[in-house]
Amino acid sequence: MKRVISVIVENEHGVLARIVNMFAARGYNITSLTVAPIPESEFSRMTIMSEGDPKVFEQIVKQLYKLIPVYKVIESDNFIEKEMAMVKFNLDEPLSDIDALARCYNGSISNVGEKHVVVSVVDRPDRIDNFLKAVKRFKPLEVVRSGVSVIER
Amino acid sequence: MKMTGARIVIESLIKENVEVVFGYPGGAIMNVYDEIYKQDKFKHILTKHEQGAVHMADGYARATGKVGVAFVTSGPGITNAITGIATAYTDSIPMVVISGQVPTTAIGTDAFQEVDAVGITRPITKHNFLVKDVKDLAFIIKEAFYLAKSGRPGPVHIDIPKNVTADMTEFVYPEKIELKTYKPNYKGNKRAIKRAVEAIKNAKKPVFYIGGGSVLSGASNIIREIVKTTQIPAVETLMARGVLRYDCPYLLGMVGMHGSYAANMAMNDADLIISLGARFDDRVTGKIDEFAKNADIIHIDIDPSQIGKVVETKYPIVGDVKLVLEEMMPMLLDGIDPNRYEEWREILKRYKELYPLTYSDSDEVIKPQWVIQITGELAPEDAIISTDVGQHQMWAAQFYPFTYPRQLLTSGGLGTMGFGFPAALGAKEGKKDKVVINFTGDGSIVMNIQEVLTGYKYKLPVINIILNNNYLGMVRQWQTMFYEDRLSETDLSDVQPDFIKLAESMGGRGFTAKTKEEFEKAFNEALNSNAVCFIDVQVDRREDVLPMVPPNSPLKNMLVFKEDK
C-alpha cells in the first residue's frame, strides 16, 4: 500500500541523510521524496511516499520521531497530493493533440525548441500515471517525474 | 572571555562535571590534547586502542550511571571507536564521543586521516554533530550531554575539525537546553496507566518482564516493592540482572534463549505480560509467532518506537519506567489481592522444582558454572561483574548471585567480544571502592588484551577470570548442536597464549587453575594483589550452556538436558 507522509525537520546540514539512512537501514522503500525549506522558518518539509502495510508505517513514523531534528510527522488521509511530470516529444508529433491532452491534466506545452517540445503537467500521482499512459502513443522521448508534494485540506 | 575551541571543549566538560575522559590522541585532536595537558580538573586515561577507550567510557557509564566520555582523533581513530559506539548504542548507554576531524577546508578532499565520521556514526548514535563554526561549539557540547542522558539514553558523537579547535570565540556555556524537536515523554498517560492497572488486577497469570530500561531509569527499588506487595512472578532479561535480588522468591530467573525453564514457561503460559523497559529481543521471544500466545501485553517504554515493534501491545505506555511505576503503585496497592495469583505461583514453583538451573559438577575437571558460583561466594556481595561474550557470559548471567542493578556489565544487544575487560577497567575507575571481576573466554580476552597496560599505568586492579575451554565455546556449541559437530575454526587449542607471562609482561599478574583448590587460592590471591590479574581456569572443554531454546523455536521447546539434543 502506498502512503504519503509529510515530515517537518530542522533545516540543518545532514538532515536529509539522516532521514534517508533511517529508511535504508530498516529496509523501508522510498517511492518518492521532495524536500524544500518552509519559507520564513528554520524548518524544511520533506514529503515522502513509501510502501508498506499499516504496521510498517506505524514504525516509520515512530522511527522518524526518534531522529532528533524531526519536529513533526504529518500523516493524513486528507491530503491534496500533487506531482509534476515533464515529457519531451519530437516536434513532428501532433502538437495540438498533445497540448489538448496536457490541458486535461492541468498542464500545457512549456517549451518549444528547434527539434523538441516539452510538456509539463501537475496533478495527482494516480492521474499522472494515467497521463503518462495516454501520451505513450505520441512516442515520448524523455519522461521526468517529480516527487509528490502534499498539503492537508 | 575569548578562548580557543580546544579550550572551550575542556571548559564545557568541566561544566558538565566530567571526572574522567578515556582517549587516544592524534593529529586532528592535538589542540584539545594540548589543553588537557594544561588542566587538572578532570583525569585523562590514555588507553592502548580507541576501542578500549570507548568500552571503558561505556563500562564507567554502566557502573556509575553518569555519562561516559571518550576522545579520539580523526580517520582511524574514529573508525577504531565504532564497535564501542555501536555497543553503547544497542544497550542505550549514555556517552559522548568527541573526535578530531581534518580542517574544514580539507573536508571532502580525501585528506590525510580523513573519513566521513558523522556519516559513519549516524546509524549507531542517538545523534551526531559536525561542528563547522567555533561559535556553535559550546552549545553543541551542552546539547550532546543533554541528549546522551535524557529520554532513552545513548551515545552522541561530536566531530570537531582541527581549525575549529584553534579558532577563538567568547565562551558562554548555556545553562539550560530547550530543543523544539526533542521532548521525551517521561510521564505515562494517566488513562493508559489506569487501564493497565485494571488489567493487572483482572489477570490470573501475570508476569513482570523486567528489561534493561528498568536499570537505566533507576526503577529497581520500586520494582522490588511492587513485586513484594503484589507477589506477581517476575523474569529478568540479561540486561536487567540484579534489578531483583537473586534470592527474591518471586524471581524466576533470566528469560530467553538461555533462560530458566520456569521463566520461559511463565512467559509462554502467562495471560498478561507486564514489560518494564524490555524490548522483546529475538533472543528473548524465540519464534515470534508462538510467543506468549495467550497473553495481553502491557508495554512500558520511554521509546515509543519499541512499542508494538515486535509484538502486538494491548496496553502501551510511553514513559520512564520508574515514573510510570510510581504512578501505578498506589493504584495497585488499592485493592490488589496477592492471593489471586497463588495458583499461578504454584504452577511456576513446580516448574522451578522440576527443572532447576543446574549442572553436573565434577571433581575431575572444573565446570565453568562452578567457577561462577564459587566466585559469587568468595567475592564481596557488591562486586561489579563484567563479561565478554559467549558461553561464559550466559553462565555468568545464569549462575552469578546478582544483588544490585548495575552490578552486571555486559554487551547485551550487540554481543561484542572484547567488551568485558576494558568495560571492567572503566567501571573500576568509576567505582574505586568496588571489586571488579570480568568473566571472559579464551577467545574474547585476546580481543582487547593490550589494555592490561592501561590497568597497570592507572592502577586499576581488575580480575579477569578466563573460562578457558580452548574453544570459541558458543560457536562450538552451535556447531555441535546444529552443524553435526563440524568444528569449523573454533578449536583454539593450538594457539593459546601463556596468560601468566602475558599478564606479567604488561605489569599484571597471572594464575593458572586446573583444580578447584587452585582456583580458590588464585582468586583469593588476585583479590589482594592490587594488579590486573588473569586467572586462566582450564574448564571442561565440552560443557554446553543449557537450558537452551534452539534458534527460531518457541520458548516451550526448550532443551533442558544434554540428552534432549
From TrEMBL, chain A:
Report a single Gene Ontology molecular function. Answer: acetolactate synthase regulator activity
Q: Which SUPFAM superfamilies match?
A: ACT-like
**Gene Ontology cellular-component terms listed:** cytosol
| One Pfam family per UniProt | ACT_AHAS_ss
Alphabetically sorted, this entry's keywords are:
Amino-acid biosynthesis, Branched-chain amino acid biosynthesis, Transferase
Q: What class of enzyme is it?
A: transferase
Which EC numbers does the record give? 2.2.1.6
Q: Which residues cross the membrane?
A: none
Q: In which pathway does it act?
A: Amino-acid biosynthesis; L-isoleucine biosynthesis; L-isoleucine from 2-oxobutanoate: step 1/4; Amino-acid biosynthesis; L-valine biosynthesis; L-valine from pyruvate: step 1/4
**ACT domain spans which residues?**
4-78
InterPro entries membership: Acetalactate_synth_ssu (IPR004789), Acetolactate_synth/TF_NikR_C (IPR027271), Acetolactate_synth_ssu_C (IPR019455), ACT-like_dom_sf (IPR045865), ACT_dom (IPR002912), AHAS_ACT (IPR039557), AHAS_small-like_ACT (IPR054480)
Q: Source organism's superkingdom?
A: Bacteria
The Gene Ontology biological process terms listed for this entry are: isoleucine biosynthetic process; L-valine biosynthetic process
What is the protein's quaternary organization?
Dimer of large and small chains.
**Job description of the protein:** Catalyzes the conversion of 2 pyruvate molecules into acetolactate in the first common step of the biosynthetic pathway of the branched-amino acids such as leucine, isoleucine, and valine.
> What does the sequence similarity comment in the record state about its family?
Belongs to the acetolactate synthase small subunit family.
What name has this protein been given in UniProt?
Acetolactate synthase small subunit
Q: What is the lineage of its organism?
A: Bacteria, Pseudomonadati, Campylobacterota, Epsilonproteobacteria, Nautiliales
From TrEMBL, chain B:
Which ranges form a coiled coil? none
Enzyme class, one word?
A: transferase
EC code: 2.2.1.6
Q: Which organism is it from?
A: Caminibacter mediatlanticus TB-2
For this entry, the protein name equals Acetolactate synthase
- Keyword list, A-Z: Amino-acid biosynthesis, Branched-chain amino acid biosynthesis, Magnesium, Metal-binding, Thiamine pyrophosphate, Transferase
Keyword check for Metal-binding: yes
Pathway, per UniProt? Amino-acid biosynthesis; L-valine biosynthesis; L-valine from pyruvate: step 1/4; Amino-acid biosynthesis; L-isoleucine biosynthesis; L-isoleucine from 2-oxobutanoate: step 1/4
Record domain Thiamine pyrophosphate enzyme central: where: 193-327
The family line of this record is: Belongs to the TPP enzyme family.
